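Reopening closed ticket. The problem is back. First fold of the pair:
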Amino acid sequence: MIHESQAPGELQALLDAAVDAIIMIDHRGTIQTLNRAAESLFGYRSAEAVGRNVSLFMPPEVAAAHDGHIARYLATGDAHVIGRGREVDAMRRDGSLFPAHLSVGLVPGTQPPRFVGFIHDLTQRREFEEDSRRSQARLAQVARFAAMGEMAAGIAHELNQPLSAIATYAQACDRMLDRPAPDLPEIHAALKQVSAQALRAGEIIRRLRHLVSNRETERVSSDVNEVVQELATLAGIDARHNDVTLAFELAPDAGVVSIDRVQVQQVLLNLVRNAIEALEGLPGERRTLTIGTRRLADQEVELYVRDRGPGVQPEVAERMFDPFYTTKRSGTGLGLAISRTIARAHRGTLGHRPGPSSGAEFFLRLPTLEKNPTQ
């Protein structure tokens, strides 16, 4: 704590020993002293800054309102900043801005009051956070491509069907046009089938490109059930190719969430892939998986993937969310680890529990944007 009774030299020595920038101002916002860290951070020598308004260190739009904040505090005692930390933009001598954490305190025993501000440069932390975000995005991209690679055979088979149908109908049209009296209604019907099959193939490719696209994270308000239904095409392809029955249990009141749709769909697709692999070698009646949504209390919604496989062994359950841990012969070990990271980035949770009768149930819980109407 800074006291009036401390000698000026002793006070300055204490200030200069601090790693963060410290600036003391009077009730008019005039700078009275600053430490060496503040000189280094802002690019002003003490002699240049003392006696000037502290708005010297603020961007113009903030500086214009600063004196009014001090005047309001002196008149009302209502403290908006004092005693509370907050993140702000600060300005160096060369006009460049940098992110900073500012905390302001009242110097005790001073009248008129004086204030002391502590400024911590957040530039490195922001750069680290941005690097971490980019690394996470790259890993997520790798995980998406890995999932698509595992689904490649099913996707190729699914695309081959409409392409083969297009070729068949086109050849039929060619034969009918060679007739002396072509049946135009029949040709017209065949061309409609060509168009429909082309749209079917295009929709598969569109959804595939959307899921593997390398793009900036984008949070939008989304109906939970619509997010699941958008994934139905790709999930259905994978299920059919592996002779698995896919069912949906979508609660009508599931709700709306603020999410990156592609990232959340990636989580669900990872869970679907794991469930399909868990069903390998089981008899037909057990080769079923369910994607569902249910509304929870406390403004949460749960998206789940349930299978009727052998379940998760305890030794696997302890490590299955660890990066690079996998029980697959050719797995990357990234799917569940990335999925949990995505869940946490959305202020949600990813977890596992035994299925109601057998198998496993993985769930993703997310905060909703509105209260449960039944509450």
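Second fold of the pair, where the issue appears:
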Amino acid sequence: MLKPVGLWWRRAISIQGLAQHAAPRDGQFPRDPAELAKVPGVGQYVSNAIQLFQHDIARPLLDVNMARVLERYLRPHLLVDIRHDPWLQAAAAWMVRCENPVTANWAVLDHAALTCVARTPRCDACVLNHGCNWRRAANLPAA
């Protein structure tokens, strides 16, 4: 299944590392980010997902899609590497400081996939367009 997307070998190794760690531990992963970083296949995104879903810690599922929504809504920003961008990391962490961080994450990711898409955002259908700095800078009318 991973072969058509071109990263199959790297993903297969990551998934294997995660499985080898999880199998003898009944699927449990460390709570501490420093300990999680030692698990094969765990980078920032996977670490945040484990903390969010397994340990109920409010962590953002920050990827290029979430970064796009945050940057368009809050302020334009030149992406270099989202994993090491302090402003973007802080903005994403702020976004999930709420009653239900899982729902907040899914909402932003769904919004990025359906409305705030990369090439032709659907600003006319966006529920956030009144406060969106990207829409304002592009001189698009609010819905």
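Update: turned out to be a display glitch only; the data is intact. The chain has a mean pLDDT of 89. The CA atoms of residues 110 and 116 lie 9 Å apart. Please close again.
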